[in-house]
Amino acid sequence: MAESNSDALPLIPLFKVFMAPPAELDAPLLSVLHSGYITQGKKVEEFEEVLRGFFGNPRVLTVNSGTSGLHLALHLLQQPHGDWPGLTEQVDEVLTCPLTCTATNWPILANRMRIKWVDADPKTCNMCLLDLERKLSPTTKVIIIVHWGGSPIDLDAVARVQEVCFRRFGFRPHVIEDAAHAFGAEYGGRKLGTHGNTVVYSLQAIKHVTTVDGGVVLLPTQRLYERGKLIRWFGIDRERRSGTGTDFRMESDIPEYGFKFHMNDVNATIGLANFPHIHGLLARCRENAAYFDAHLQQLPGVELLAPLPEGTRSAYWLYTLRILDGERDRFYKHLRDRGIVASAVHQRNDTHSTVARFIALLPQLNTLAGEVACVPVGWWLSASDRERIVDAIKTFSAAIAAESALRTPSIPLKRRNKKCLITGGCGFIGHHVVEHFARNTDYQLVVLDKLSYASKGFDRLRSTGIFHLIEIFCFDLSNELPPGLFYEMDAPQIEVILHIAAETHVDNSIDTPVPFVENNIKSTLHLLEFSRRLPNLKHFVYFSTDEVYGSAAEGEAFKEGDAHRPSNPYSASKSAAEMICHSYYNTYGVPLMVMNVMNAFGERQHPEKFIPLCINKIMKGEEITIHAYKGATKPGSRWYIHARNIAASVLFVLEHGSHGEKYNVQGEIELNNLEVAQFVAQELGKELKYKMHDNPTQRPGHDLRYALDGDKLRALGFALPLTFWESLRKTIRWMCQNPEWLDIGSYEHRPENLPVQRRAVQPGAAVDQVHLKKGSSGASGRDSAGALAGSVPFSKL
């Protein structure tokens, strides 16, 4: 490419499509098009023969895309053969790295295999081989590796991992190399595709060699090659036709179905025209990369990837830098202002909702994903282009260095190694605790949740923005924890257990008490048994409820040592589980602390709960039932506390509490349920329609008031971080701005139509502060509108 004589360097593309000059391409392409047989395969066969010579592998198949090639490679492994056990759908897993194009990993889903994510190596951006070995299991049947940017991974180390798997489990996982970036790359002095693995190349429009779209599959055995040759085109054997008559299109019997993955003659013709240029293209890319290697050494804030070992040559489809200390966006802007485009190229795959069930903690990738930046390195760069890029990176680095010299040195973040297991972490209180710990501790967080109806799946954790920082396992604790789960969680590293999971819907406990009570007791018992096997466990925190003490009289507040008087099966199950926890503390030395919490509210609460239910009904103009004392004149009351205050109290207890002790977490203020409904109506600027009700026949054992004494925790120095009125106001606003959490997504009232701020209704406020109209339906603080027909039950989390 000729150097530009212009003073202003035009925008340098990150990639540029290469096509052969028209004179070299037009004639053969037009010949194929005019022949009428553009899928006859003659040019495909010619192109494959050229590729066989280039790679030194006779088992070469062309396909219509690299993605099709990966799908075909996995499909070929489903059948057992020899010592290969085959694949079992929805059981066997593929170890793969998420730092790649989704084209690498979506074929795993299409073949109905399970994904197990492997961390990335910050030195190479390839798969971390240490983590790869750690992730081996009896269901690890396939390993997909990506040669990031065209630089090969250590294939000898991958082969050693295969042998480790064989020694442990009796089989060698098959290795598929995604070499989409790496056409012409070499490892150990040999081109990729000659090391005994299946290798898939992409010939898409922006790759070194292009057929506009297409791919190449190199197979390690003749059996896989012969099957792949048939399956890429419907399973039809082109060399065998029906013997009946002269109709050449009639195929013979098809013993195994296949796909339309084959390459056609038009694409092959384009590839044949492009291929003679490959050596020159690779040489230019490598020359550009060598220039960057020489001129970008030891720059503050900019880190190069590790140098390649002897005998390894990159194709340099990408030239990757790591931009440190959170400065990548600034780096992008700095280069963009100078007419240079930089990019991370690929979004990590594991954060997409379609693979949420496979979420895993990948601490190295969590850092690396925010640092990766790729600058132009392609064959089209001129000498002056390279100089401009180097100068831009150096000036960026110099600015970072100058600013760093003026800053006070920061304390490095602690490495996340010790683990905290949180049960019920997908639930309402649980996800607030998970978020608080992710942002305020250095624990590796492991979440165990059975994903019941109340969990909303992973949606709560996704919404917090910390989803990629945690490990999640879907498991029902009413069953014993199996050895495999112990292994997967790396249980010996668990130092803290926060047992939040429980069935909490009081109405369900009344309707079906036996399975409800069994679940809450068995889940706690199984977790306690699990905790006895943990060599490094320092704290076991059991979440209990104010309901274990029963209904509180006016002016009464229960202290930690007061007797339990549960009123319904739910509170009885929590009381029983609490007693079992204390027995394990006394008998086995489980490092127990119990926390009794009160009525929680906050963002992402289930719409059946009182405050979101009030928001929903008031916005729709519906009536609310307010449960009341006998005579229907005095509403029942609750102490309310924001879930983030509860999360803060948990961390405080871990740091200041003592084993064997109980701690009440008291809300800031006690409100009757009418006052809460009034405040919600005031904030929404809507009329409140309500009815007092004093006969909850559908809720025997109903308590109208709960109260805890919080002096013990306050004496240790704990204070609620969030004030009640302001946090309630923000919660109302947030729920209205995120109506999917109210299940009113299409409702006509929109957040932009709501008042920005309204005066709070304080306890005892005059009724005429809000629009009140007596009607018929409703709620009490914990129990909501469940006592009457047409209302929704409410129970405490």
UniProtKB/TrEMBL annotation:
<keyword id="KW-0032">Aminotransferase</keyword>
<dbReference type="InterPro" id="IPR015424">
    <property type="entry name" value="PyrdxlP-dep_Trfase"/>
</dbReference>
<feature type="domain" description="NAD(P)-binding">
    <location>
        <begin position="421"/>
        <end position="730"/>
    </location>
</feature>
<dbReference type="InterPro" id="IPR016040">
    <property type="entry name" value="NAD(P)-bd_dom"/>
</dbReference>
<dbReference type="Pfam" id="PF16363">
    <property type="entry name" value="GDP_Man_Dehyd"/>
</dbReference>
<feature type="region of interest" description="Disordered">
    <location>
        <begin position="774"/>
        <end position="797"/>
    </location>
</feature>
<dbReference type="GO" id="GO:0008483">
    <property type="term" value="F:transaminase activity"/>
</dbReference>
<dbReference type="InterPro" id="IPR015421">
    <property type="entry name" value="PyrdxlP-dep_Trfase_major"/>
</dbReference>
<dbReference type="InterPro" id="IPR015422">
    <property type="entry name" value="PyrdxlP-dep_Trfase_small"/>
</dbReference>
<dbReference type="InterPro" id="IPR000653">
    <property type="entry name" value="DegT/StrS_aminotransferase"/>
</dbReference>
<dbReference type="InterPro" id="IPR036291">
    <property type="entry name" value="NAD(P)-bd_dom_sf"/>
</dbReference>
<feature type="compositionally biased region" description="Low complexity">
    <location>
        <begin position="775"/>
        <end position="791"/>
    </location>
</feature>
<dbReference type="Pfam" id="PF01041">
    <property type="entry name" value="DegT_DnrJ_EryC1"/>
</dbReference>
<keyword id="KW-0808">Transferase</keyword>
<protein>
    <submittedName>
        <fullName>1 aminotransferase</fullName>
    </submittedName>
</protein>
